[in-house]
Amino acid sequence: MAHSEPRPFRAAAPSAPLAGRLGVPGDKSISHRALMFGAIAVGTTEIAGLLEGEDVLRTAAAMRALGAEVERTGPGAWRVAGRGAGGLVEPADVLDMGNSGTAARLLLGLLSGHPLFAVMTGDASLRRRPMKRVTDPLSATGAQFWTREGGRLPLAVRGAADPLPIDYVLPVASAQVKSACLLAGLCAPGTTRVVEREPTRDHTENMLRHFGATVAVEDTPEGRVVTLEGQPELAAAPVLVPGDPSSAAFPIVAALLVPGSRVVVENVGLNPLRTGLFTTLREMGAALSIENARIAGGEPVGDIVAEHAELRGVEVPPGRAPSMIDEYPVLAVAAAAARGVTRMRGLAELRVKESDRLSATAALLAANGVRAEIEGDDLIVHGTGGAIPGGGTVETHMDHRIAMAALVMGLAARAPVAVDDAAFIDTSFPGFAALMNGLAGGAAIGPA
Ligand code: S3P
Questions:
Q1: Could you say which DSSP state residue 241 is in?
Q2: In terms of C-beta density within 10 A (0-12 exposed, 13-18 middle, 19 or more buried), how is residue 253 classed?
Q3: Could you tell me which HAMAP family the record lists for this protein (predicted)?
Q4: Which of 42, 102, 209, 344 suits a disulfide with 316, CB 3.0-4.6 Å?
Q5: Three-class SS string for 157-185?
Q6: 317-to-202, 276, 309, 356 alpha-carbon distances in Å
Q7: R_g (Cα) of the chain, nearest Å
Q8: Is the minimum distance from the CB of 179 to ligand 1 under 6 angstroms?
Q9: By three-state DSSP, how is residue 103 classified?
Q10: Residue 429: other Cβ atoms inside 10 A
Q11: Does 196 contact ligand 1 (Cβ within 6 A)?
Q12: Which atom of ligand 1 lies closest to the CA of 101?
């Protein structure tokens, strides 16, 4: 799973508009959680639609190393025989979480509540990312952490033998930090309480309930208060993973930008804490419609219809950031094609993603002849009104979403767009190029 050789790619305008129906791979957030919860539930959890991207495969390997039986029974079909909360065993070797911040941070929550010693590392991107945001609150359980300078990986953890419940007000809007605290709380007696000022994705809360835990959520003047009753008996439960809205974002924006296109992305997760991009695109003038809206596996899902549209620049408020935190690179591409200026506000968290996504996104635009500025934590994009020059090479900095956003831009630009390395796309969206080429009816995206 290590990427020794970079894979340069390029994208050019397709010879025909994008057309057709497609499904995108399973939701990454839900896939990680399904494997972890399956591993600490009593009984056998059957998962359908699991994302078989490298990030999630790291979680599968880690749960095996911690004693769970994890087996692939078919495409996207996985079976996890759980050990019960508190039942994980000490791993014999270092846990390598690859490129995945979600895998690393959620797992640290779980490990905190188990009396075991573990060492965790990741790839060069993950080893640069902050872990103190989880080790700080998790230390209150009694777990001990030894980290590199700045709280970075590799780190060692000795989980608490008698973990204490956490009561924590999140200093940043982060579903990963919230989830790490809740996962630690599964092994502690009493009530774990996490307060978030801005609501973040609630897949952990939803899935905990699905596995039988008691989780209460209350909106208060202090923020959203999530409480979990400790030491529940988690019972194995089937999980149906919907398509990832963060992956659907790429074909949807491509369809909006390439004249004459009409694309239907089927079975997309539409959890309201994930759909900020679609709200923003509508404000920009996109006619996105939802067909076949339904509830599947406890999450709202639907088919999204996207057609080419003339877009206009908008102001994206900072409060919307948690509901579209992974979508700013591709929104910036849509903004580059729009008429007028788009100002995206409150993007500080983008600096600590797989890359510094704020500067990587600005650089992506600049390399392709689009004017963009960073002002404090805001990104300002000067739209071209549909005439993106292109012709640049984008540095992806080990970041799948920068790579995919750049390639989508190439489909809509006057000159092809190149990326230095498309290999990391496999972390979240295996088959991305083939899928996009299927819509284009030819090889619009391929090796450079
Ligand atoms: C995720 C939460 C987000 C998001 C990441 C997945 C999750 O990170 O960027 O891709 O599954 O909980 P933060 O919670 O750190 O913002």
A1: P
A2: buried
A3: EPSP_synth
A4: 344
A5: EECCCCCCCCEEECCCCCHHHHHHHHHHH
A6: 21, 10, 22, 20
A7: 21
A8: yes
A9: helix
A10: 25
A11: no
A12: 5
Ligand 1 neighbourhood includes 349 CB (under 6 angstroms): yes
Distance 388 CA to ligand 1 centre (A): 30
Residue pair 251/24 in contact (Cβ under 8 Å)? The answer is yes
Residue 296: φ, ψ to 5°: -135, 130
Q: Ligand 1 mean position to 259 CA, how many Å? A: 33
Overall CATH class of domain 28-229: alpha beta
How many Cα atoms within 13 Å fall on the side-chain side of residue 447? 3
Helices (H) and strands (E) in the chain, counts: 12, 24
Q: Which CA distances in Å does 88 have to 109, 115, 159?
A: 13, 9, 11
State if residue 326 touches ligand 1 by the CB under 6 angstroms criterion. yes
Residue nearest to atom 5 of ligand 1 (CA): 102
CATH code reported for the domain at 9-26+242-447? 3.65.10.10
What element of type H or E holds 359? helix 357-366
Strand partners, 21: 264
Q: Which of 27, 96, 303, 326 is catalytic?
A: 326
CB of 24 closer than 8 Å to CB of 266: no
Is beta strand 167-169 parallel, antiparallel or unpaired with respect to 191-196? parallel
**Other CB atoms within 10 A of residue 379 CB:** 27
DSSP 15: S
List the pLDDT tens digit at each of the 448 positions of the chain. 445 699 999 999 999 999 999 999 999 999 999 999 999 999 999 999 999 999 999 999 999 999 999 999 999 999 999 999 999 999 999 999 999 999 999 999 999 999 999 999 999 999 999 999 999 999 999 999 999 999 999 999 999 999 999 999 999 999 999 999 999 999 999 999 999 999 999 999 999 999 999 999 999 999 999 999 999 999 999 999 999 999 999 999 999 999 999 999 999 999 999 999 999 999 999 989 999 999 988 899 999 999 999 999 999 999 999 999 999 999 999 999 999 999 999 999 999 999 999 999 999 999 999 999 999 999 999 999 999 999 999 999 999 999 999 999 999 999 999 999 999 999 999 999 999 999 999 999 999 9
